[in-house]
Amino acid sequence: MPNLQNAKKALRQSVQRATRNKLVQAEIHSLRVKLRKALTAKQAKEALELYHIVGKKLDKALAKKVLKKNTVARFKSRMMQKINAIKNA
Q1: The CATH number of the domain where 35 resides is what?
Q2: Residue burial 28-54, b: 16+ Cβ < 10 Å; e: rest
Q3: Residue 5 CA to chain centroid, in angstroms?
Q4: Would you say residue 89 has pLDDT above 80?
Q5: Mean pLDDT of 3-29
Q6: Domain count, the chain
Q7: What is the pLDDT of residues 17-42, one digit of tens each?
């Protein structure tokens, strides 16, 4: 346990940030699972709508520094590749 007042506050802040980041990551994960299910069911329109929602959430997470730039780019790229594969099939 920290002894100094500023160390105590820093610990409280880091715990709050960690829980907030976990919530954001969990929400993104669940949306990505829904998108994956829509892709396996070959529902291109629903998958595209989910892609827009997930993309927006990923961009927000990037802005808040919850996720790194390359991670967000990789997720978005892979999702779009799968959507395009269904559209063109």
Answers
A1: 1.20.58.110
A2: beebbeebeebbeeeebeebbebbeeb
A3: 34
A4: no
A5: 97
A6: 1
A7: 999 999 999 999 999 999 999 999 98
